[in-house]
Amino acid sequence: MAFLGAIFVILGTIVWFGGSGSWHERLHPRLGLDLVGGTRVTLLASTKDGKAPNRTDLEQARKVIEERVNARGVSEAEVVIEGDQYIVISVASQANAALKDVGQASQLFFRKVINVADGSGAAAQPEPAPSATPTPSASATPSPAASGSGGGAPMAAPTPTPSAGAATTQGKGLLSEDQLKEKVGADAWNTAKGLTGVPTDPATILALSKFSTLDPRYEVASLSPEMQFNIPQITCDMLNKRVPGAISDPKVRATACDDSTKEYLDVSKVAGTDIDKASPQLEQSGSRVVALTFTGDGTSKWTDLTKEAVNNNVDPKCEQAALGQDKGHCLVAAVLDNKVVTSPEILSVLTTNSSITGNFTAQSAKELADNLNFGALAVSFESPQSQTITATLGAQYLKAGLLAAGIGMLLVIIYSFFYYRLLGSVIFLSLILSGLLTFGMLVFLGRTMGFTLTLAGIAGFIVSLGVAADSFVIYFERLKDEIREGRTPRSAVQRAWVRARKTILTANAISLMAAIILYLFSSGPVAGFAFALGLATVLDLIVVFLFRYPIMALFAQTPAFLSPRVSGLGRVLRDAKEQKS
Fold first, then answer.
1. Partners of residue 258 on adjacent β-strands
2. How far apart are the C-alpha atoms of 420 and 371, rounded to whole Å?
3. Does domain 38-103+366-389 have CATH number 3.40.50.720?
4. What is the mean pLDDT of the chain?
5. pLDDT value at position 17?
6. Tens digits of residue pLDDT in 447-504
7. What are the C-alpha distances in Å from 228 to residues 174, 192, 336?
8. CATH for the stretch 391-580
9. Where in the chain is CATH 3.30.70.3400?
10. Between vectors from CA 319 to CA 314 and to CA 320, what angle results, nearest 5°?
């Protein structure tokens, strides 16, 4: 009776303190993606050499992504690693927009702009055309500097530096110089290698035409930053499609785009790791910015970089004629992953507080700030692939799962009453109590640790019915053996329990160990199945020890228990009576 009272106290506590809403809402367990519908986003890890990333880096990326998802207000999210290259985000809601850029590496580098060129592709035309002055995007500058527009045509070529990763790989990955030369032909390759600036001669431009056939992801990414900048056929559209992480080395110069303007960039002297805090803000002009506060060491680096840009007295110098700067001030680009977010002119030396400007919305500014605050991912990912599961399909799954569970329990109960009669009522009451305990734990765990019931979890609970039935059979058959050995039914209850409980413990321990191993070494639906099976097994043991034996001891005191027709021990009791006579 104390055990029954404890169960109802637990359920009453859940109803009374289980959040807000009606009692029905308070008793509603958290349902998973496959039952109520939602979104599943799959991120494929991408590396420059095409190989699987380091497992430690992948786990670190998973934790950062989980923090980003939670920061965006997405509830009931599950972020798991699958295989050696995938991170899967499952959310029991329609959250496609909130998860759109959650896998962005967010590797931020501040680089001085050495030179600019047209990246629209117009310069790749072999016929002379009216010159268009490429200008960097007019964006607000980090405060307190003012924005300036660029002008003029690119002049002298930048000093060549080693390519950012030209290791030979098999299959997918960066190409070596020999592979690239074979791809475009020796003539085009030698012409490109001999460039001292962006060509304007139609014959030279025509000789470089083969470069327009390069695959943007790995082949364009394999070119040196100088070739990416100087070759007119390498457009901003191609540069923006480079494999994620293509310009992630801060010690190597890079080429990236601000809208349709190619920018040749110096090595990075300030990185996102030098930022102490980032926060989205709304300026008086109505534009959105991401305000930055640098760390102590980061402040010194940022001050030195802005001083270098203002004075333009440190090699490599930015090309003043190309940038159209009368005062000789340089642009400083904020490069996020493979793209330039903004590249304003630096008019004065800046210190601790600055800001990143761009065409931000309220959401994109917050997302960038969150990504910078939680840190960059150690692994880059491809564009996410989203799969939407409708609530209608989930409701059908739920109904089918509950129907299967109900049919399974009904069959067990029918068989129990048919074979064990009065003892079948013990099985019936035990299963009801196990069900109540299980339901209460689902609601409790859903609110305390975010556990969600999935279709795989329902399958685990259905399987647990067989485990529970096994413990009944073990005990009741042991009871019959004790009566056959000459003990009275009442004394046999105690003796059978002592001898059967070891077997019951062993059988349940095997099921529990299997569930633990599955849970620890699996993910997704398999882990949900294992958790449900393990939980049901533990609850079954609680019912066995706190209810089944006490209720059997109570039944043993009733006349019905001694009746061969009622107890379910008919043949055994008759045989024992005949032996005594």
1. 261
2. 63
3. no
4. 76
5. 53
6. 776 677 777 888 888 788 777 777 878 888 888 888 777 777 778 888 888 888 888 8
7. 14, 10, 18
8. 1.20.1640.10
9. 38-103+366-389
10. 100
Question: 306: closest CA among 350, 353, 352?
Answer: 350
DSSP string of 110-154, one letter each residue:
EEEEEEEEE-SSGGG-SS------------PPSTTS------S--
The pLDDT assigned to 9 comes to 63
Q: Which residue has the higher pLDDT, 241 or 458?
A: 241
SS (H, E, C) 230-296: HCCCCCHHHHCCCCCCCCCCCCCCEEEEECCEEEEEEEEEEEHHHEEEEEEEECCCCCEEEEEEECH
- Give whichever of 40-49, 79-88, 225-234, 474-483 has the largest mean pLDDT: 225-234
Longest dimension (CA), the chain: 122
Residue 411's contacts (CB-CB under 8 Å, 6 or more residues apart) are none
- Which residues are 261's β-sheet partners? 118, 258
- 8 Å CB contact between 177 and 166: yes
Cβ proximity of 111 and 344 under 8 Å: no
Candidate from 110-124, 160-174, 375-389 with smallest mean pLDDT: 160-174
Query: Interior CA angle at 356 toward 353 and 362, to 5°?
Result: 115
CA dihedral in degrees (281, 264, 228, 165; nearest 10)?
-80
**Residue 465's beta-bridge partner residues?**
none
Q: Is 470 exposed, middle or buried (0-12, 13-18, 19+ CB in 10 A)?
A: middle
The pLDDT score that the predictor gives to residue 301 is 92
User: Is pTM, for the whole model, over 0.70?
Assistant: no
Report how far residue 190's alpha carbon sits from residue 196's, in angstroms, rounded to the nearest whole number.
12
At 257 the pLDDT is: 93
d(CA 325, CA 259): 20
**Dist. CA 33–CA 78, nearest whole Å:** 10
Distance CA 436, CA 10 (A): 10
- Pick 398 or 255 by higher pLDDT: 255
* Most confident listed range (98-102, 125-129, 289-293): 289-293
Rounded to an integer, what is the distance from CA 334 to the centroid of its chain? 26
The reply to whether omega before 144 is within 30° of 0 (cis) is yes
Residue range(s) occupied by CATH 1.20.1640.10 in the chain? 391-580
Q: What is the pLDDT of residue 72?
A: 65
Q: How far apart (Å, rounded) are the C-alpha atoms in residues 338 and 263?
A: 12
Query: Going by DSSP bridges, is the β-strand pair 332-336/339-342 parallel, antiparallel, or unpaired?
Result: antiparallel
SS3 424: helix
- Taking the C-alpha atoms of residue 357 and residue 146, their distance in angstroms, rounded to an integer, is 12
